[in-house]
Design brief:
heterodimer; A: alpha/beta; Coagulation Factor XIII, Chain A, domain 1; 2 domains; B: mainly alpha; 74% helix; binds adenosine-5'-triphosphate; binds magnesium ion
Amino acid sequence: MSDLAISIQNISKVYRIDPTTGGAASRTLQEDLVNFAKNPLRRTTSSKKQEIWALNDVSFDVHEGEVIGLIGRNGAGKSTLLKILSRITEPTHGFADIFGRVGSLLEVGTGFHTELTGRENIYLSGAILGMRKAEIDRKFDQIVEFSGVSKFIETPVKRYSSGMAVRLAFAVAAHLDPEILLVDEVLAVGDASFQKKSLGKMSEVAESGRTVIFVSHNMGAIKNLCTRAVLLDGGKALVDGDVDHVVQEYLITASEKGEWHTEIADREDRQGSGALRFTGFQLRGSNGSTVEAAVAGEAVEFVLQFQCNSEKIQNASIMIWLRDAFTKGLLRLGTELTAQSFNELPQEGKIICRVPRFSLRPGRYFIDLGADIDGVKADRVIRAVTLDVVGGDFYGSGKVPLHPNDGDLLCEHSWRLG
Amino acid sequence: MSSALRNISHLTAARLRDRIHTQIQNEKILHVKKKIDKGSSKKISWHVRIQRSRGWSGLSLRELWSFRDLFWILAMRDVKLRYKQTALGVTWVILQPILTSGIFAVIFGVLAKLPSDDSPYLLFAFAGTLPWTLFAQSLQRAGSSLVSGREMISKVYFPRLILPISSSISVLVDFLVGLVSISVLFLIYKVPLTWNLLAIPGLVFVNLLIAIGVSFWISAFSVHYRDFIYALPFLIQAWMYASPVAYASSIVPDQWMALYSLNPMVGIIEGFRWALLGQGEFSWISFGISLAAGLVVFALGALVFRRVERGFADVI
Ligand SMILES: Nc1ncnc2c1ncn2[C@@H]1O[C@H](COP(=O)(O)OP(=O)(O)OP(=O)(O)O)[C@@H](O)[C@H]1O
Ligand SMILES: [Mg+2]
């Protein structure tokens, strides 16, 4: 067994939020002064505060050279754990021992300032990540070359496309050369060729014997890069072990809990007459129960909750667009495509779209919703919800294309000698 | 009876689990120790234990030192942004103290006919405005430095003290530009140059010491109380009128003088007048008060800052 790189022992993290201030933990002076004036003897608040156990007694060891995937649902505590390990925040209980220089990539673009040029931002971001100026000087050319934005290096970053800024930021962080690398979901951005490059860089880092903890919702990338994985759920380390096993466990737990996305109802930035409005979204799995993520190769149902603002709606057509992070359309599902339409819709109700075999590669996608009444635009909600797709067994062979460059679509096919 | 039995077996199970747990922990600690021992000879560059810190912690100057480039890069970022974003850029930095002093000269010199210790009032006011601007701008910028750097604070670890310090350094650059502009006034008014000018670096140092010290308090405060930043300009203004920026401290009534000179900016501003205009006497007592106050405010401020910085990332 090789040497320890990280030893996490019974770490818990409690966040206190104050529901009366809309969750913000910081307060206003005015409020405290007023409270003090009303009742100078009692210490203000603290009774109203809620506790959130973002991490609850998590322990595991990471050995030198190991590449560990950290997976779990939204809010499971993955980012919190990485923040503790990179010393951004302190644990409430427990401790961790870290052997070696830590570099963390919790979010790209940290410290980027849009008024400054690419060159200036490289120095700024490098120094914030802990590089000395001489070190940045030395790696400057490599960084620029890796980012692929060399032509724009003297241009203010505000003239960059968002993809270019991300590439530059990742390039800086990727050249940090730490002994231990903590990466939180940064590879989900950038175009396909850049994702490929970043994943390549990540596996280079892993192969060079450095220790990596990698957080992602992309099970493909996790399986590709990691040998071991830890599943966090509700702040606890639920399963720890071989990556295939842990990912399988995750898929089971992930498909159990899903919720209504009712935030759609409050979206103001929508288009259309409003004769019909979407008010909620829910994802259902093959057996009709609500799920949090779709499984590639299995049935999935999109449940759209709606509200009608006029009587007797006739000839309603509904559409769903699935897009990648760059708003590139991947799929369109629509009643007009299946030559259907809805008549006499009730004031409130649900419309369900069933896809018998879901055919997108594991990853994160975005859903736009649309409704037309009699050919007139009634409602459009762009990026209504995010859709996580987790790996399933689409081809019945246990294999899925993992490389970002392999495209996002899965398609049934067979081979023969002709 | 049976429930009692269950309780006992439950208890022993828990105890057993505890024992196994501590055993595992001990082994781990041993392992860690072995590793640390070996570490000295091997390539491990360092070991940190991450846990909740309690009580007061020191400044960790070693760590600050390892981030020394960041001070400068952040300060230069602030300077560049300021000069890029305002239409007038550098001109504004030069004009602002001159305009302010002009207003003081008209109101206090021409209208109120306050004494200016024999110098042209404009020059007199300028010699006070220059160090004051350094102080006030540091407070203003450093005070908001944590809140405006919240992106960084919640995504990267670096010594948080760097943020207020580097904002103050960036204001120092403005101050140096301001010094250039005063030399133009010197030429116009034909002020003789004196050896007193050599005291300026020392005065600037103490001025910054006080400014950064106060900024530690203000910035720490402003993370926990978001609305504090709105009260800050009023505090700074009140402080200005309690300092001899626009008037000479000789007009302060004698019975108030003792209290008045507890303000550490009094010694600094008077010192600047002495150094730039070459008149009066240098008051070592005032300077001593400023230096002592600066050291105390800085040291305590840094300690308080270090104490509350642990919660910054969660709250900000
Ligand atoms: N600064 C904070 N103040 C209060 N609560 C917080 C704070 N940061 C995180 N939390 C809470 O802690 C829990 C864990 O959050 P965390 O960001 O670690 O989840 P995650 O696993 O990274 O999720 P995701 O997959 O969405 O990135 C959540 O319930 C979150 O609301
Ligand atoms: Mg996260």
